[in-house]
Design goal:
- The chain is α/β, with parallel strands linked by helices and 311 residues long.
- The protein has a single domain (2-309), classed as Rossmann fold (3-Layer(aba) Sandwich), CATH 3.40.50.1820.
- It has eight helices and ten strands.
- It has helices at 21-40, 45-53, 105-115, 134-148, 161-173, 213-224, 258-270, 295-309, and strands at 2-8, 12-18, 63-68, 73-78, 86-91, 119-122, 153-159, 184-188, 247-252, 275-280.
- It has a ten-stranded mixed sheet with strand order 1-2-10-9-8-7-5-6-4-3, sandwiched between helices.
- Helix 3 crosses helix 8 (295-309).
- The longest helix has 20 residues, at 21-40.
């Protein structure tokens, strides 16, 4: 792994992180595992997806506590020690149509162990049963629940659709006049444009082993219903990004959502937001999950943990 190049502006930093030959071999082997899993998996689609995500192990020294209240449902993922008043609100991916807090406990725990900050991983209503705005409303409700519990330093983190939902939530919280503001946003391969206009969506040179264009279109349709895809509370790329907290965006080069990350970083920086964009060469969608297989995954999560700790 190497930092191949960097471009630093007054408020934005973009780093491309290269891939060693050894890491490339591990990535190729992992893609074979992906292909074998998805070609042989049987059962209900949401259960299959949860099995895939839950392969990320629970980190050592982590305590799990279920949350089931009117305002929020999910899991607390706690380190052995933590500073009072600090928390992560973790919003899972799954194209707004699948994913669960239970499946994502392992992924969240890896970050929690590195950051030393507890994470609330929430369940939010899934489409098509619960289309927009159910997910953003649930995220804001979870934020209010954390604040009412005395948390004042809160970062919001999400992957894929959960990354888009993280940015939508940050936009929504700009409107609140009282209470704490988010200290940071961290997004892994965020889905920021549900109108699917990013060049990487249709670029034949982009070899995405996990996402397909038609799948993304179907997810968007189920989530949107009759809502315009360019509404900022759906696609944060088109929102007023001024006054957002510092952002860390991580994305691989081998994924359809590459341009969603690039454009989000560019527009946020142009709006005066402090943005750090990491582009990981040869990496697949939300590669951070694969801590058992890739050094890149572990290093990327370390970067994310340090970003939160320094916010």
């Amino acid at each position: 792994m190497s930092i191949a190049d960097g471009n630093t502006g007054s408020k934005a930093t973009t780093i491309t992180i290269g891939l060693s030959d050894n890491e490339r071999e591990k990535e190729l082997a992992l893609r074979e595992r992906f292909a074998n899993f998805w070609s042989s998996a049987t059962g209900e689609p949401r259960a299959i997806y949860d099995t895939f995500i839950a392969s990320c192990p629970i980190a050592q020294g982590i305590a799990l506590e279920a949350v089931d209240e009117d305002e929020v449902r999910g899991w607390w993922v706690r380190p052995s020690t933590a500073n009072p008043g600090e928390a992560i609100l973790f919003l899972h991916g799954g194209g707004y149509v699948q994913g669960s807090a239970t499946a994502y406990r392992g992924f969240a725990s890896q970050l929690v162990a590195l950051a030393g900050i507890p994470a609330l991983v929430i369940d939010y209503p899934l489409a098509p049963e619960s289309p927009w705005p159910a997910a953003p409303e649930a995220a804001l409700s979870a934020w209010r629940w954390l604040v009412s519990g005395g948390f004042e330093r809160i970062a919001i983190i999400g992957d894929s659709a959960g990354g888009g939902l993280t940015l939508v939530t940050l936009l929504g919280l700009k409107e609140q006049r009282h209470g704490p503001k988010p200290i940071a946003g961290v997004v892994f391969s965020p889905w920021t444009d549900l109108s699917l206009t990013g060049a990487s969506m249709t670029d034949p040179s982009v070899n995405d082993p996990l996402l397909g264009h038609e799948y993304m279109r179907e997810c968007a349709s189920k989530f949107l219903g009759s809502t315009n895809a360019r509404v900022p509370t759906v696609s944060p790329l088109f929102g007023d990004l001024q006054d957002l907290p510092p952002l860390l965006i991580q994305v691989g080069t081998d994924e359809l959502l590459l341009e969603d990350s690039r454009r989000m970083a560019e527009r946020a920086a142009a709006a005066g937001v402090s943005v750090q964009l990491e582009i990981w060469e040869g990496m697949h969608h939300v590669f951070q999950l694969d801590v058992d297989h890739l050094n890149s995954s572990r290093v990327a999560l370390y970067h994310a943990a340090q970003f939160i700790r320094n916010a």
